What we know:
This protein has 112 residues and is mostly helical.
Amino acid sequence: MPRVDRPDRGQAYASIYGMVARIPKGHVATYGSVARRAGLRSARLVGHALAALPDGSHLPWHRVVNRDGAISLTGGAAEHQRALLEAEGVRFDMRGRIDLHRFGWDDETPLR
DNA sequence: ACCGTGACCCCAT
DNA sequence: TATGGGGCCACGG
Length: 112
């Protein structure tokens, strides 16, 4: 019997991908919120699952950012993600952060 | 099996 | 606002 609070990797990944697919265009969700919505307790697992996506994936992986509203990817990939978001209307401030009060999916509030 | 390393997050100070 | 420490999970050496 699999533990309900710790589903196997396949279940976890499926839940994560399902939630990411629901993020509306022009909005973003955080790793932590995706994890919670998917019934998981690890935000890291979300990042791990997204990193495992094939290049041609239709999933809107770029709509997932960290708690600060910033992009967690490093190097050129970060600029790619930012370009994809800006193309759908998401704005970044001077410090490269997104206002989650404005663009966060479903009442996502930073700072507790 | 142990340890380090992440597309992370939360709390206390 | 900024650190430090702990929790979380998968992977690779």
